[in-house]
Amino acid sequence: MGAVPTVGTHPHTLHGWFDRDLPPVLTVDPGTTVRFRTLDSGWFLEPDTGGDVADRRRAPGFTPDAGHALTGPVQVRGARAGQVLEVRVDSVVPASWGTAYGGLLGTAWNARLGLTGPAVHAWSIDVDAGTARNQHGHTVAVRPFLGVIGMPPAEPGRHSTIPPRWHGGNLDCRELVAGSTLYLPIPVDGALLSVGDAHAAQGDGEVGGTAIECGAERADLTLDVRDDLLGRPLATPVARTPAGWVCLGIGDDLDEAATEAMDAMLDLMGALHGLPRSDAMALAGVVVDLRVTQVVNQVFGVHAVLPAGALR
């Protein structure tokens, strides 16, 4: 077996936006495993010690208008708009440090929750032990995943990394751990996949505005292309994860996001089990869970989960 192609964190591979006209840094055949290295989402090269953010070193290429530090894009040879990009997450190994913040959301949110100011938690990550510990002595289990896995919109120009989109991006879904396969509708020829925003641990909703934000020392993704998913067109991200099948919905409010997630889940259940839509909904009321993916990225995310083995 030859060497795994690697995309590291260099000035020519780092960017803070999605843009279909960004030249690919690597072109691979379908079925290729690519090893990515990513930075902390804020482009930081060192932990937050509670000082002025201006004093923390950032990677070359950072500009004030940059969003998440993304690595890529990687072009998949022969991929066409309208097909499905299959992203198999083989491994995600976090860096040795990360940061989580509290009280950094809008003032109205802070006031409703009685927050008086921001808090900074600096985490030391022990990859071998599978834990992270902050400066206050709290210890949590790590469950690393990439918050951003996505492709640029078909429209020209630079697009923000903050809101998730129907073709991926800042999904922040904590179920996309190693062992998952994410299916994304392809918006542009070549796919042009970029990744970043690794999280060592995160709760559903990402309610504080951040997770344990960290870099990824290694994220191995196997990229493939298919015409559809289970014989049907794909309109929103879907994943097969250790937790079960996951359908992601995105909307301007939680109702819209939940409706989109359930619409995709009913299609999926119909394809998996040969169910008419009304029967799929009757069964979904028994076995499907709706979870808030995130509430902090300009739009809202909800994911519907059909747990593994729940419906046989």
A few lines on this structure:
The chain has helices at residues 107-112, 254-273, 277-287; strands spanning 6-7, 14-15, 26-28, 32-38, 70-76, 84-102, 119-126, 131-134, 139-141, 145-150, 168-170, 181-185, 193-199, 213-226, 238-241, 244-251, 289-297, 299-307.
Tell me the structural class.
mainly beta
Main beta sheet: 12 strands, mixed
**Silhouette:** globular
Write down the CATH class of the largest domain.
Answer: Mainly Beta
Rounded to an integer in angstroms, the radius of gyration calculated over CA atoms is 19 Å
pLDDT < 50 stretches: none
Mean pLDDT: 94
Q: How many DSSP H or I helices?
A: 3
Instruction: Give the SSE order as H and E letters.
Output: EEEEEEHEEEEEEEEEEHHEE
CATH architecture of the largest domain: Sandwich
Approximate strand percentage:
35-45%
Number of strands: 18
CATH topology of the largest domain: Jelly Rolls
- The tally of domains stands at 2
Helix content: 10-25%
CATH superfamily of the largest domain: Acetamidase/Formamidase-like domains
End-to-end CA span: 38 Å
Pfam families: FmdA_AmdA
InterPro entries: FmdA_AmdA (IPR004304)
GO molecular function, one term: hydrolase activity, acting on carbon-nitrogen (but not peptide) bonds, in linear amides
Protein name: Acetamidase/formamidase
